[in-house]
Amino acid sequence: MVLLIACVNISAIQFARAAKRRSEIAVRAALGAGRRPLFRQLLVESMLLGIMGGALGVLFGVYGVAVLRRTLPDDVRWFCDVDSLAINTRSLVFTALVALASGLLSGLAPAWQSSKAQISSVLAESAVRIAGRRSHFWRAALVVSETAMATVLLIAATLMAKGFALLATGQQGLAPASLLTFHIDLPEGLYPEAQQVRAFDNRLLDQLKGLPNVQSASLASGIPYSSFENTSDLIVRDLPAAAGQGPVAMVDSVSNHYFRSMHISLREGREFYTGDLSTSLRVGIVSQSMAQRLWPGQSAVGKQIRMSSASAENRITVIGVAANVQNEIYDRSFRSILYLPSEQTSTRSADFVIRSEGDPTQLAAAVRSEVRSIDPDLPLENLQSLDELVRSQASALQYVAGLMSSFALLGLTLACVGVYGVMANSVTERWRDLAVRMALGAHSWKLLSEVIGRAFLLSTIGIGAGVLLSLGLARVLASLIYGVSAWDARTFLTVPRVLEAVAWLACYAPARRAINMDPSVALRSE
User: What 3-state class would DSSP assign to 48?
Assistant: First the structure.
């Protein structure tokens, strides 16, 4: 869209140049120059402009690549070889083709119009007057098309930026801003027995709960947004499955009150409590999505399942159904999750979560102190709020949203410059007409309203066409990108108003300048 807006701007400049060269073209045609050579010459001039612009763009591109290398967020660098990011032969060939196509596209219509000029009419009248009449349609088409493209670009960019922002916020029901998280790996050499692991976890949780402003503390083998992966094939009682096609779930070992700490509501059944010990009945809680997939239309409570790696007697009885939780920024589908009590399935690697009444990061020093009081040599990793964890995972989305916004701003700037240039040229071509009418006593405010009104009408038509195109584009974006609404009333009402204001300012400046001009100066210039 930015490229098309730039091509429209170049076309407007080419039309303005063609208007001033109509007399020259007519004289050359009168001296025997054919229409095809004239058309070819004008088109080559446009393509040369495109090639030179492409060459200059390559220089900016080299600098842009250097900026990307320095500013790419860490989670992009993690899977992207930034050092290999460079302008290569393919990039140069692509740039050359785009430059040639842009020159061809932007110069085609002006060259065609100039090459078919009627010799007698051009030589008989003033070039300015002729240009004012003949280029009326093309000038209007440029204003309409440019404002339409700017409208589509801004609406699409706004919708996508809002979708990215929604992705970057994470699941707000978890209230991540009041959660402090950290990770601990217990070395097997110091904690060889499962009973020792459980003793450490319980002691640390008891000490964390005693810290000031702490509402609750719990642990899990993996919390949301921690990139935790631990899937297992399941065998479901009374649910036959073909070989290799059985249900799969992510298995998460959690402590008592975990769901309360994470603000995950229970849809059915009960939470884990202190009576769910390793010697008790093996129990589990399933996510709502898992319950709906395995037992649609039925209650999941009381159902029995087991992991394929466990023995037949180690069946797990479902005692509750928990609300769905988003586990990753980039994955909006809800996984099947099987929660098991940590007393029955201890884990050496655990994420601890602390729900605080105030700013959870203020507890960081106290948390470190409590961990050192139990084991001074134990490393404590990723001590941060869940909100910070979500933001770090979403840094790439925010970066892309920033790029989208910058290109939308560039498109808006180009549209403003283009509309201003077209209107300024239009007013300049009407200087003689305006000067005569002012000399005959026409009021300046009436001429001003006439000039602005016509330009305002063209921009309104363009914005209306852009809104209609955007409605169709929004439906496509809504089906492809999470968070993009097919009908975002605020966006579809705000963007046209902004563009109308921009168009009005672009029209007002050249019109006001023409009205304040001395009529005698304009008439003498003719």
Answer: helix
Q: Are 502 and 462 in contact (CB under 8 A)?
A: no
Tell which residue, 427, 422, 409, 407, has the closest CA to residue 503: 422
Helix axes 136-169, 444-480, angle to 10 degrees: 40
pLDDT tens-digit profile of 247-277? 889 999 999 889 999 999 999 999 998 888 8
The contacts found for 26-34 with CB under 8 angstroms, 24 or more apart, are: 26/117, 26/119, 26/122, 26/123, 27/123, 29/117, 29/119, 30/119, 30/123
Residues of the chain where predicted confidence (pLDDT) is lower than 70: 19-20, 22-23, 75, 79, 113-136, 168-172, 238-246, 311-313, 332, 423, 426-431, 482-483, 514, 517-526
Query: What burial letters (b/e) apply to 359-369, b meaning 16+ CB within 10 Å?
Result: ebeebeebbee
pTM value is 0.66
Residue located via tokens 């808006």: 412
Distance, CA of 70 to CA of 132 (rounded, Å): 50
Task: Please give the helix or strand (H or E) that residue 103 lies within, else none.
Answer: helix 89-115
- Per the structure block, which two tokens stand in for 367? 């948390």
Question: What SS3 state is found at 225?
Answer: coil
Output the six-digit token pair for 143: 């204003």
